[in-house]
Design a protein that fits this description.
The structure is a single chain. Helices cover 14% and strands 34% of the residues. It contains 4 helices and 15 strands. The protein has a 6-stranded antiparallel β-barrel. A hairpin with a 2-residue loop joins strand 4 and strand 5.
Length: 250
């Protein structure tokens, strides 16, 4: 099938001899395998306190990388990465490439890559002419609890509560990066008490609606599709839940 244009994404090129080693010390995932050729990695940039700043896809393309990022956070993220660059031989430049994404069989040209987060997210291709929106991505995301930049993923988010381990967005063997210590401590020394989960919703409430157990806060409601929704929940408060006038059940 013809893919659809992802109009809310921006593409940057990352070039320079130090591009991989620089990013390896900055982001949550192991990017060094991209040196072996074509591939795609999903990764996050964190604060020193381990909280989310941005997420993006990194794509190997010859002697450069493509950085595929949500338009709303693109400029601030590139500024932050550039601030850390110091003397490293790495350059970021805006690209006029577009990204096309789809499910099912990908077109033969340009070459496409499987989205590394989940098979249900299909494929992505760079430089292709995409068609009009046809795919219900919210339905796919709610079915598989896949967070989206600026909706489920905010500056209050932690990677492990947001599903990054399940979705192949964090590597615990790669060594240090910004925010690594907090992320590793959550993995090895604590039990998660809160996180994103797919729930059933009867009724409607806008994203950001607080979820209550009686009069006690239990979490927040996010993306909805049909009778499914993504919620951020306390795992000790999972029954008798409401979000506005909607009823929430696991």
């Amino acid at each position: 099938m013809l893919g659809e244009l992802a109009a809310d994404r921006r593409i940057y090129t990352v070039s320079g001899a130090d591009r991989l080693t620089f990013l390896q010390g900055m982001v949550s995932n192991d990017v060094l395998p991209l040196a072996r050729g074509d591939g795609m990695v999903w990764a996050a940039l964190l604060t020193p306190q381990g909280k989310y700043l941005a997420d993006f896809l990194l794509v190997a393309q010859g002697d450069r990388l493509l950085l595929d990022i949500k338009d709303s956070i693109a400029e601030t993220t590139i500024r932050r990465l550039s601030m850390y660059r110091l003397r490293a031989d790495v350059q970021f430049a805006a690209s006029d490439l577009t990204v096309t994404r789809g499910v099912g069989k990908a077109p033969p040209t340009p070459p496409s890559l499987a989205d590394p987060r989940h098979p249900a997210l299909g494929w992505r291709a760079y430089g292709a002419a995409g068609g009009p929106p046809e795919i219900d991505w919210d339905a796919i995301r709610t079915a598989h609890c896949i967070p989206e930049t600026g909706i489920e993923l905010t500056d209050d988010s932690y990677l492990l509560e947001s599903g990054f381990e399940r979705l192949h967005g964090v590597d615990f063997r790669k060594g240090c990066y910004v925010g690594q210590e907090v992320t590793a401590r959550m993995k090895h020394k604590t039990e998660l008490k809160k996180g994103l989960i797919t729930v059933q919703i009867d009724g409607h409430a806008p994203p950001g609606t607080p979820i209550l157990q009686g009069d006690r806060p239990a979490g927040t409601l996010f993306t909805q599709s049909g009778r499914r929704a993504i919620a951020y929940l306390r795992f000790d408060r999972t029954d008798n839940l409401t979000a506005g006038s909607a009823k929430i059940t696991l």
